[in-house]
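Handover notes (outgoing to incoming on-call)

Open items:
1. NAD(P)H-dependent oxidoreductase: sequence verified, structure written out, both below. Nothing else pending on this one.
2. Nothing else urgent.
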Amino acid sequence: MSKTLLVVHHTPSPHCQAMLEAVLSGASDPDIEGVEVVRRPALSVSVSDMLAADGYLLGSPANLGYISGALKHAFDVCYYPILDATRGRPFGLFLHGNEGTEGAQRAVDSITAGLGWVKAADYVVVSGSPGKAELQACWELGATVAAQLMD
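NAD(P)H-dependent oxidoreductase structure tokens:
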């Protein structure tokens, strides 16, 4: 039985998009078997998407020191309906921000702690244009979280 890795993202800039593509590439590595990668824009993710997933990758710009309004909206819509059903599930996070990413990281830490999710890998936080090393870190984030779902 395959597992589902849900990638919930708000990637409005070319930098965020490049990070998303690297995360998806890592999560979809051919060596990772039995894991279906499903991507949903944060503004359209549903409670059923969240409930159907076995793990999560979250992507957002850090806007004014906080996660994007789109990612916040996703949690506002889904938080209570998924609260008990998703405890213990692994997640990862990638953020892009030019400054003040600490508030965005704190927000995700607070939300995921409330949900009882388990941080599966170090967060990838990039300022400025993501270079080869940062995109490799994104690839590794995707691969790490996906590999943890393999049977």
